[in-house]
């Protein structure tokens, strides 16, 4: 079962061909213990991990070093080993960043080797069971490999009275003395002669591959992660007994996010059930994440709130997951994330289209409400940007008036001519930047449900009252017909119902197909800004009642624009698609233009 898990996760250990190559390169004795170590390819490179410590990632990159200043600024819970950071050893307990080294800035004769420093950290009680840790190394000599083994096996060493602890400490002490002082000072370890000889035999056995590969001149060519994995297994074979793993359960951590100082959301893959896994985590690590997810198969997850008193409602988590899951749509209301306040699951029919890293990010987003300053800042910016554009145009007009009225008139003509192409270009660029990764979140999908059609009569009435971008003058040529009659209405609808609405919906609840009716904050703000932009437009826009209302025509048109913005926003939310409001905008704009301005030039 463990091998199947690794294969599904993309670990190098899951490939028979790779296993055979590694076995030939780094031979070891017959397996009598579970292979707890795995190497996985990620976007950043190869990562080594242990199935008993899935929260710890080991990165071994040949020749990689960082300065001491950069090391101290590394992300929280980072450990540098044996030269990966060019600095004296240091311990930043506040940020939990550590440099285990005995090369730079120290008296080497009086400084513990890296593997000994790692043992001291574990015995002093460094909590490696909680949250995400990353270990950096750049050369897997025996000192570094032992340090990695100690950190990955901290749960077997932290008490200090286990058989494996008593067995490996002499080896770590002797290797530390050899690495720091040289072979001639082995006697400093003070071991009895028989025990010392046994320890040296073990060190020679562990260094057998290293010596052979270096003598062949191939040390700079081998796969450091695969070599380290085999070395860790050899150490296991030396010091563990099969009965040490009678309760062993393999866990693979697929993704993790910290919710607050003490709580996490973690996605695991294992052959245990969700309740069994929860009990195992609590027994082995003494803790469990607030939100726990179990990947049962590709796209299939069980989600559980392990801490009943954690202040996050699961309904809110389901809503956030459903909003961003590409496989969830109002067209099939049964195929969505859901469940009780304690346990639920992914969409039943299709599975989820979210990656584990995306799932934990969304759960974190559901928990961490943005600061009020950010929410109100977006509301304020979204409400006032049309007025800011109008102010800039007025300011430019006033400056040009200093040179005469001809310049002002010329500037007005230029503004009318450039308004449409500039607006269309800006909308296209924003659309590309904002929506290219997840277009379905912003409404680029097939419409869902039919309840949004109840809003069409109100939308048509508001559009005919002047709420759409129907140009009030004939199109002089094909260029202006396409530019003003097609692209401008579409770009205005996309800008306000996609770009601005999508920018605001990150921090506010919106409607869903078939769910309760309400006017969301994104709908209200985007509708207001839409009406403001229409009001300050330098282009002549139409409404059906302009010939009969006289001076009241601008008032009716403003009310129609605001009403249309609200209705179009609600259609976009309840249909989960931008397509209905795009079609409505374009159809009404052409209808108004055909009835009043005429198609010709």
Describe this structure in words.
The chain is 50% helix and 11% strand. The protein is an alpha/beta fold and 601 residues long. It folds into 3 domains: 244 residues, no CATH class; 116 residues, Diaminopimelate Epimerase, Chain A, domain 1; 226 residues, no CATH class.
List descriptors.
single chain; 601 residues; alpha/beta; Diaminopimelate Epimerase, Chain A, domain 1; 3 domains; seven-stranded mixed sheet; six-stranded mixed sheet; 21 helices; 11% strand; elongated
What is the strand and helix layout of this fold?
Layout: H1 2-9, H2 16-25, E1 37-41, E2 46-50, E3 53-60, E4 66-67, H3 68-72, E5 78-81, E6 85-86, E7 90-92, E8 97-100, H4 114-123, E9 133-137, H5 142-152, H6 154-157, H7 163-181, H8 193-206, H9 208-215, H10 224-239, E10 252-258, E11 264-269, H11 274-285, E12 291-297, E13 300-305, H12 314-324, E14 338-339, E15 343-345, H13 356-367, H14 372-401, H15 405-435, H16 456-467, H17 478-505, H18 521-535, H19 546-549, H20 553-575, H21 579-597
Parallel strand pairs: 3-9, 4-6, 5-8, 5-9, 11-12
Antiparallel strand pairs: 1-2, 2-3, 7-8, 10-11, 12-13, 13-15, 14-15
Helix pairs in contact: 4-5, 4-7, 5-10, 7-8, 12-13, 14-15, 14-18, 15-17, 16-20, 16-21, 17-18, 17-21, 18-20, 20-21
Widest sheet, order of strands? 1-2-3-9-5-8-7
Query: How much helicity do the residues have?
Result: 40-55%
Determine the N-to-C terminus distance.
75 Å
- Pick out the low-confidence regions: 4-20, 26-30
Q: What's the number of structural domains?
A: 3
Q: What's the rounded overall pLDDT mean?
A: 86
Radius of gyration equals 33 Å
């Amino acid at each position: 079962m463990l091998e199947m898990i690794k294969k599904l996760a993309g670990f190098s250990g899951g490939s028979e061909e790779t296993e055979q190559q590694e076995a030939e390169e780094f031979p070891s004795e017959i397996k009598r213990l579970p292979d707890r170590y795995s190497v996985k390819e990620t976007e950043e490179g190869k990562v080594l991990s242990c199935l008993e410590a899935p929260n710890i990632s080991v990165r071994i990159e040949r020749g990689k070093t960082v300065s001491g200043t950069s090391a101290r600024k590394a992300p929280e819970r980072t450990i540098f080993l044996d030269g990966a950071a060019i600095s004296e050893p240091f311990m930043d307990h506040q940020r939990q960043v550590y440099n285990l080294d005995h090369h730079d800035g120290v008296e080497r004769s009086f400084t513990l080797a890296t593997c000994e420093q790692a043992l001291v950290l574990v015995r002093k009680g460094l909590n490696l069971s909680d949250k995400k840790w990353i270990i950096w190394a750049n050369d897997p000599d025996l000192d570094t490999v032992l340090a990695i083994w100690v950190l990955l096996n901290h749960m077997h060493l932290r008490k200090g009275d286990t058989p494996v602890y008593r067995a490996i400490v002499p080896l770590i002490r002797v290797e530390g003395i050899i690495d720091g002082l040289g072979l001639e000072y082995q006697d400093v370890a003070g071991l009895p002669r028989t025990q010392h000889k046994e320890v040296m035999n073990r060190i020679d056995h562990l260094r057998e591959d290293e010596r052979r590969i270096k003598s062949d001149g191939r040390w700079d060519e081998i796969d450091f992660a695969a070599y380290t994995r085999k070395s860790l297994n050899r150490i296991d074979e030396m010091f563990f007994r099969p009965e040490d793993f009678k309760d062993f359960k393999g866990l693979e951590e697929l993704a993790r996010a910290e919710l607050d100082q003490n709580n996490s959301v973690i996605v695991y893959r294992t052959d245990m059930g969700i309740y069994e896994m929860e009990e195992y985590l609590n027994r082995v690590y003494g803790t469990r994440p607030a939100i726990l997810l179990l990947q049962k198969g590709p796209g299939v997850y069980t989600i559980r709130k392990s801490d009943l008193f954690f202040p996050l409602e699961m309904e809110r988590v389901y809503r956030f997951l459903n909003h961003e899951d590409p496989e969830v749509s109002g067209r099939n209301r049964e195929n969505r994330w859901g469940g009780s306040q304690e346990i639920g699951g992914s969409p039943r029919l299709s599975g989820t289209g979210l990656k584990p890293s995306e799932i934990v990010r969304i759960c974190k987003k559901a928990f961490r409400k943005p600061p009020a300053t950010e929410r109100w800042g977006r509301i304020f910016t979204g409400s006032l940007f049309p007025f800011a554009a109008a102010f800039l145009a007025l300011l430019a007009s006033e400056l040009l008036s200093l040179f005469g009225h001809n310049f002002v008139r010329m500037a007005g003509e230029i503004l009318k001519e450039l308004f449409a192409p500039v607006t269309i270009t800006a909308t296209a660029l924003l659309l590309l930047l904002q929506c290219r990764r997840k277009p379905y979140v912003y409404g680029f999908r097939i419409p869902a449900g039919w309840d949004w059609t109840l809003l069409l009569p109100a939308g048509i009435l508001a559009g005919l009252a002047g709420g759409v971008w129907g140009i009030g003058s004939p199109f002089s040529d094909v260029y202006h017909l396409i530019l003003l009659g097609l692209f401008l209405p579409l770009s205005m609808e996309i800008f306000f119902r996609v770009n601005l609405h999508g920018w605001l919906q990150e921090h506010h609840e919106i409607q869903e197909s078939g769910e309760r009716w309400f006017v969301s904050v994104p709908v209200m703000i985007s509708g207001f800004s839409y009406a403001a932009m229409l009001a300050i437009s330098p282009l002549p826009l139409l409404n059906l009642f302009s010939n009969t209302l006289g001076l009241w025509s601008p008032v009716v048109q403003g009310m129609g624009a605001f009403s249309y913005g609200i209705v179009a926003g609600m259609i976009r939310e309840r249909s989960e698609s931008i397509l209905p409001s795009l079609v409505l905008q374009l159809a009404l704009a052409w209808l108004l233009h055909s009835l009043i301005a005429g198609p010709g030039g």
